[in-house]
């Protein structure tokens, strides 16, 4: 196994700021025990004023999200970054692929900062460009490549987005996967196939549950097996070629717990993210992106009961914000997203105070060619017609 095939290097190793892999923090962090961290973060934010715009993904810790100028899912944050041409610095409280997308969508003079470079994403790491290029060649050898449109989930590295851009594909998020897939299936006539990267679950759930494709029309491409573990006949018969990747948080929710909770909490409604396994989503009452989950809980009547299958920081925050509703986490064994949690108050303070002193730390900068090609796929996404019900 080569190093690029490793799903995730142990956090804190290596020094590759262009990858999703964990890297060391180069600076002197304030200690987490410093009682003045909140005041220091606020003072730095006040000093920077309109020069800085802080974006916070919904899975961020409370201690960080309180300083976000805007919170959102990855789709909303991509749009918000693109809509802030005046901010000199974008401090991205989220993970590496999101900061890369922000860099691609913002102007050349704007600088994107990720407070801890170890905030990668294990799912994004499951599709390396070399593996995807190998798969693309294999699709040509099987005689199907001309029918295939690559679609990548936002949760992928910039070079995978660029691959999609130069091969007629598009980016999608959990808010617009159905719209993006509908667009993709129109691109090569009635026999169009989609290569969906890197989350097999979002791809399968969207194709089967929202678009009416059958499970038999979905095949899984395993990058660790010769020819993805698939025959030319299987590729020929498939409509959805799903990359064998998953989210290490959402992939752990199990259908058994859904049954258990239904038996123990009267009237409970199960609300899950589409990165969950198909078997979990099948048993759920509602499925949608983090924005959808938040809006659903906001609109729910007092006294209603919910079990939510998404990242724990968000579920805890929803429970705190809605004490009139009964909100539980869908599983006892699933925990926080460890890489989202890398962005803590000490890293935030360190990044912001460095900006005040005139030093840009942990800048995320995508090279020009990758930017240009990835922008094609991102812009196709931003130009998709309308909004889905899940947005
Ligand atoms: P969304 O922000 O698109 O809901 O995705 C969830 C996620 O896993 C982000 O890392
Ligand atoms: Fe990646 Fe899953 Fe964490 Fe999102 S929640 S950053 S997809 S590992």
Write up what this structure looks like.
The protein is 38% helix and 14% strand. It has helices at 37-48, 62-65, 74-82, 96-105, 122-125, 129-141, 158-166, 177-185, 200-210, 232-237, 255-264, 278-283, 290-299, 312-321, 345-356, 368-382; strands spanning 52-57, 70-72, 89-93, 111-113, 148-153, 170-172, 193-197, 218-221, 240-243, 269-272, 286-287, 305-309, 326-329. The protein has 391 residues and is α/β, with parallel strands linked by helices. The chain starts with 36 loop residues before the first helix and ends in a 9-residue tail after the last helix. It is built from 16 helices and 13 strands. The strands form three sheets. The protein has a five-stranded parallel beta sheet, sandwiched between helices. Strands 2-1-3-4 form a four-stranded parallel beta sheet, sandwiched between helices. Strands 11-10-12-13 form a four-stranded parallel beta sheet, sandwiched between helices. Strand 5 (148-153), helix 7 and strand 6 (170-172) form a beta-alpha-beta unit. The chain is globular and about 65 Å long. Helix 3 runs parallel beside helix 4 (96-105) and helix 4 (96-105) crosses helix 16 (368-382). The protein has three domains: 3-120 and 339-360, Rossmann fold, CATH 3.40.50; 124-248 and 373-382, Rossmann fold (3-Layer(aba) Sandwich); 250-329, 3-Layer(aba) Sandwich (Rossmann fold). Residues 73-75, 155, 173-174, 247, 275, 289-290 line the site of 1,3-dihydroxyacetonephosphate. It is an enzyme of class 2 (transferase). Catalyzes the condensation of iminoaspartate with dihydroxyacetone phosphate to form quinolinate. GO terms for molecular function: 4 iron, 4 sulfur cluster binding; metal ion binding; quinolinate synthetase A activity. This is Quinolinate synthase. It catalyses: iminosuccinate + dihydroxyacetone phosphate = quinolinate + phosphate + 2 H2O + H(+).
């Amino acid at each position: 196994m080569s190093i690029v095939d490793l799903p995730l290097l142990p956090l804190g190793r290596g020094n590759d700021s262009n990858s999703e892999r964990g890297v060391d923090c180069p600076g002197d962090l304030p200690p987490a025990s410093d009682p003045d961290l909140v005041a220091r973060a606020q003072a730095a934010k006040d000093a920077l004023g309109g020069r800085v715009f802080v974006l916070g993904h919904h899975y961020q810790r409370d201690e960080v999200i309180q300083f976000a100028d805007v919170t959102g899912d990855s789709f909303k944050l991509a749009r918000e970054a693109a809509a802030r041409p005046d901010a000199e610095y974008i401090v991205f409280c989220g993970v590496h692929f999101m900061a890369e997308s922000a860099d691609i969508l913002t102007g050349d003079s704007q600088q994107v900062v990720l407070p801890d470079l170890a905030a990668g994403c294990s799912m994004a790491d499951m599709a390396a460009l070399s593996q995807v290029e190998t798969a693309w060649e294999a699709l040509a050898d099987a005689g199907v490549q001309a029918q295939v449109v690559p679609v990548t989930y936002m949760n992928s590295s910039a070079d995978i987005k660029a691959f999609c851009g130069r091969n007629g594909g598009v980016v999608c998020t959990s808010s617009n996967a159905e719209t993006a897939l509908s667009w993709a299936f129109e691109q090569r006539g009635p026999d169009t196939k989609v290569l969906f990267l890197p989350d097999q679950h979002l791809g399968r759930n969207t194709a089967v549950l929202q678009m009416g494709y059958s499970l038999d029309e979905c095949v899984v491409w395993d990058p660790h097996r010769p020819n993805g573990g698939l025959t030319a006949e299987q590729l020929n018969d498939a409509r959805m070629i799903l990359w064998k990747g998953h989210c290490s948080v959402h992939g752990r929710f199990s259908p058994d717990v859904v049954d258990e909770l239904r038996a123990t909490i009267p009237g409970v409604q199960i609300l899950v993210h589409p990165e969950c396994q198909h078997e979990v989503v099948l048993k759920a009452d509602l499925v949608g992106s983090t924005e959808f989950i938040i809006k659903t809980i906001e609109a729910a009547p007092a006294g209603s009961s919910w079990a939510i299958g998404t990242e724990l920081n968000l579920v805890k925050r929803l429970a705190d914000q809605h004490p009139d509703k009964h909100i539980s986490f869908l599983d006892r064994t699933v925990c926080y997203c460890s890489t989202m949690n890398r962005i803590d108050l000490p890293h935030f303070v360190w990044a912001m105070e460095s900006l005040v002193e005139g030093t840009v730390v942990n800048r995320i900068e995508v090279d020009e060619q990758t930017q240009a090609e990835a922008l094609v796929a991102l812009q196709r996404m931003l130009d998709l017609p309308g909004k889905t019900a899940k947005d």
